[in-house]
Specification:
about 150 residues; 4 helices
Length: about 150
């Protein structure tokens, strides 16, 4: 028969092995994401830099999702489901920018958020490139000397 200390040590080692395996999986996932790149994040950075550099428009990045507290006991939710990745104000009009890769698709929550923003008079842009943002702003009459709005 094993002692209490031996059983406790075995339980701790088993727990540690599970934690290590989870960490190894997460590390492998992170390395794979870095290897593949994050096209949506890259597009967003380009949009943000271009609008600020060329037009003085400050673009803000939104952080949304669910995170665990440091002790792992509580979930913390940031933002609203479906919120766009970026937002700015152009000539007094609220603009939301959702970045997508060439093959990325909007989720149902993102579509509902788009409907909400547009219903309140805001502009929602689904952007796969900087050009998409410029075209949407021009179409809305928000770029100097451009657009039909």
């Amino acid at each position: 028969m094993t002692s209490y200390k031996d059983r406790l040590a075995a339980a701790i080692l088993k727990g540690h092995a599970k934690q290590q395996a989870k960490h190894d999986r997460q590390t492998a996932d992170t390395k794979e994401r870095k290897r593949k790149g994050r096209p949506e994040a890259s597009i967003g950075r380009k949009i943000s830099r271009e609008l600020e550099k060329e037009h003085g428009i400050v673009v803000f990045r939104r952080t949304t999702g669910m995170f665990m507290t440091m002790d792992g006991r509580q979930r913390v939710y940031i933002g609203q489901p479906g919120e766009a990745d970026y937002w700015c104000c152009v000539r007094g009009r609220h603009v939301d920018i959702e970045t997508k890769s060439a093959v990325g698709r909007q989720s149902e929550k993102q579509k509902k958020y788009q409907t909400l923003i547009e219903g309140q008079g805001g502009l929602y842009v689904l952007a796969r490139s900087v050009t998409d943002v410029y075209e949407a702003l021009a179409d809305a009459g928000l770029m100097e000397g451009q657009g039909n709005g």
